[in-house]
Structure formats: structure tokens, C-alpha cells
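Long-time lurker, finally posting.

We've been working with Death on curing protein, Doc toxin like (Geoglobus acetivorans) and I want a structural starting point before designing mutants. I don't trust myself to interpret raw outputs, so I'm hoping someone here can both generate the C-alpha cells and explain anything notable. Sequence follows.
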Amino acid sequence: MKSIIDSQRSRIVGDNGSFTKRALELTKSPARFNDMVILPVAEKYGKLATYDKKLKKDAESLGVEVIKVEQKV
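Top reply, 14 upvotes:
Generated this for you. Predicted structure of Death on curing protein, Doc toxin like:
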């Protein structure tokens, strides 16, 4: 966890619970709650990079630009 927090690629965002509230609004299945936490952040910043096909579809349906990433084989 520390390495993720300390990474230059990570951004810690304080939201006073607004992202969690939005995630609860978006959640249709408790199994996908983690994905739904990602979406409000992507909505705020307007972009998302993901390999997850369901998350990509959800993001696009919210008008979030999904950055094309090449999957290494």
C-alpha cells in the first residue's frame, strides 16, 4: 500500500465523501462497488485508463473519455 501511495503515478484525492456517495448511486451490484468508486473520480477528471471492459462501458455511458491502452501479452 505504501508503495502505491508514494508512487508519482498515484494521486490522493480528498472528497468529503462525495465520491463514495456517487459510487453508491451508481452501484447496481455490491460485487462491482470498487469499480463504482473509480467512476466518480473519472467523471471529475474526465478521463479513465482501464483494461476492464465493463468499467470502460460504464465510463463511456457517463461521458468519460476512456484512454486507449495497449495490453502487453
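Before you design anything, note these points.
Residues 14-67 form one domain.
The longest strand covers residues 47-49.
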